[in-house]
Amino acid sequence: MTEFIPFSKPIIGEAEKVAVLQVLDSGWLTSGPVSEQFARKFADMIGDRPAIAVSNATAALFLALRAAGIGSGDEVITSDYTFAATANVIVACGASPVLVDVTLPHLRLDVELVEAAITPRTRAIMPIHMAGHPDDMDALRAIAAARGLLIIEDAAHGIGASYRGAPVGSFGDWSAFSCYANKNMTTGEGGILIASEENLDIARLFANHGIRKTLTGRIDGSNPYYEVVVAGLKFNMPSMSAAVGLAQLERLVDMQNNRNNIARRYDATLGALSGIRLPSVAAEVMHGWHLYMLELDPALIDCERGRFIEELRAGGIGTSIHFTPISSQPFYRDARLHTRGKSVAKSVAANIFSIPMHGGLLQEEADRVVEVIGETLHKHRR
């Protein structure tokens, strides 16, 4: 039987296992020196601003909003074409997400619609670097500067991506990355928040119950007292996760190169097939290839997307769907949505799916993915 090729999988080796065992042997399992070291090394990869390591990217976005003082009565403009966490954190802070449609072919925020969505209540723009393709940061930053708005980058897909030579995450007042299991590097669960030192000082309070006190002082007994100065929660990254992250950073270049090579291979081989649309990459960006998304062309293929991906699964190929637009989710159906006539996000979402892409995917596996897709397309060609 042919081995199943999953949509994604983490690449874990001996270095990660050794790093976790060292943490277990140290006796310091929660946040501490290892977590701080991981945050520093990740931040160095992005630019000259500091970072904190947190429990996940959702927490990082929430902390950015809270530390920026965004709350009840405020609005944050973001993409309709994204994962639910992007909008959920805005609601969790008491603010209102204002959803804007995307443009083809790169699924970027529609800049003119962003302008039209701004009201006196707007506090921030939250761009999405969809699938690892950077948003139009020059245009969005110009709007933000002219209107006095913050940029909060949802860079959950952004590891390995760059815009005009600068890494994704270096453009926002706040930038949040994901280290989830299917991302370009992983800590299992985890996230990184990057901002100025002043802004991060506020975020650290919210990430640790609002306590103005270092954990070290409480553990070693040098200062057993603490003060709660804001109503914070608990979003720290434990040392075991950070240890995995440090080992992953050492292999990130190789894993990213593999993603780039697989993407080029897909471009060349899938590009020879009819009935699907391939990802498009703008000239000014380096794609991070967190996802490789295909769109069925219903004018050429007589097969509904759900059936198509089930047939791929039967052929041993894993897939995933990214994403159902936020405005299509029951909770958000009454949200304010800015589109031009027919929604691009909804149109794309009806036929798009992601195929296997990860840092350890073999070329022969990618070739089999293409072979099965080609056979399935041929079977359903109009």
3D structure, described in words:
With about 375 residues, the protein is of the alpha/beta class. It is built from twelve helices and 16 strands. It has helices at about 15-25, 35-45, 55-65, 85-90, 110-115, 135-145, 195-205, 215-220, 240-270, 305-315, 345-350, 365-380; strands at about 50-55, 75-80, 95-100, 100-105, 110, 120-125, 150-155, 160-165, 165, 175-180, 190-195, 275, 285, 290-295, 335-340, 350-355. The strands form four sheets. The protein has an eight-stranded mixed sheet, sandwiched between helices. β8 (about 160-165) and β9 (about 165) form a beta hairpin. α3 (about 55-65) packs parallel to α4 (about 85-90) and α3 (about 55-65) crosses α7 (about 195-205). It is globular. It starts with 13 loop residues before the first helix and ends with a helix. About 50% of the residues are buried. The mean pLDDT is about 95.
Keyword list:
38% helix; Aspartate Aminotransferase, domain 2; PyrdxlP-dep_Trfase; eight-stranded mixed β-sheet; PyrdxlP-dep_Trfase_small; 382 residues; Aspartate Aminotransferase, domain 1; alpha/beta; PyrdxlP-dep_Trfase_major; 2 domains
